[in-house]
Amino acid sequence: MLKEGDPAPAFVLADADMDMFDSASLKGKNAVLFFYPKDDTPGCTIEAVEFSDKEDGFCSADCEVLGVSRDDCLSHADFRDKHGLALRLLADTEGEVCRAYGVLQEKHREGETVGRLAIQRSTFIIDREGIVRHAFYGVNPRGHAAEVLKLVRQLCKGK
Length: 159
Description:
Layout: E1 12-15, E2 20-22, E3 30-35, H1 42-53, H2 55-60, E4 63-69, H3 73-83, E5 88-91, H4 96-100, E6 104-109, E7 112-119, E8 122-126, E9 132-137, H5 144-157
Parallel strand pairs: 3-4, 4-5
Antiparallel strand pairs: 1-2, 1-5, 3-8, 6-7, 8-9
């Protein structure tokens, strides 16, 4: 698991439009990377819509918001278009970035391990130098975007 002060792992992933996104392009700006379990499920929709609704606030803080799940590009495009999301969704179908950020957890049911890995809803605030400033695991989606925006604004004040 990543913690405050760790360097953010580098990655290259395809987005909903099948364009490649290289995390190196974030150098010099703040970033929010939120990992969510599945496109178009209730909690994930709440979280993505709330981040999208706060796009202007994040932009004014020179911060890019990126959502990551193991869904493919087509699923991301459908999810984005269905809900009018104004943020970039990245497809980590192999789970490599999820592993690098420590967000894959074994699924449990009634005290048993099911043997399947699932994304633990998590968010990372990364500064202009590529350092993790805040790491949240097991996030409650409702209201989380507002909390993250507040922290990003504080990060900007402390430059």
